[in-house]
Amino acid sequence: MPASIKVLRSIENSSGDHCVDVFVRADGTFGYEEYRRDPEDGNGWFPLQRYSHQVFATAEDALAQAKSRVEWMIA
Questions:
Q1: 9 and 22 in contact (C-beta within 8 Å)?
Q2: Mean pLDDT in each 10-residue stretch from start to end of the chain (75 residues)?
Q3: How far apart are CA 18 and CA 69, in angstroms?
Q4: What is the rounded radius of gyration, in angstroms, for the C-alpha atoms of the chain?
Q5: pTM of whole model > 0.85?
Q6: Cα first-last separation, the chain
Q7: pLDDT score at 21
């Protein structure tokens, strides 16, 4: 993530191989992104869906959208 973005919350799935970060941008807007990592690859997390371009007024709105779009978060 760019330095102008601050992650507010990072939520991992039960397997620990996917996560969603909810973040705030320097302009005060919020967003989220889904990431994955492969245990055999030591390079870390990779973005999956390119959700980060979406803009939300609150962190709660961003999280609600993530919960409705990211398959493993849908209850």
A1: yes
A2: 86 95 97 90 84 97 97 88
A3: 14
A4: 12
A5: yes
A6: 27
A7: 97
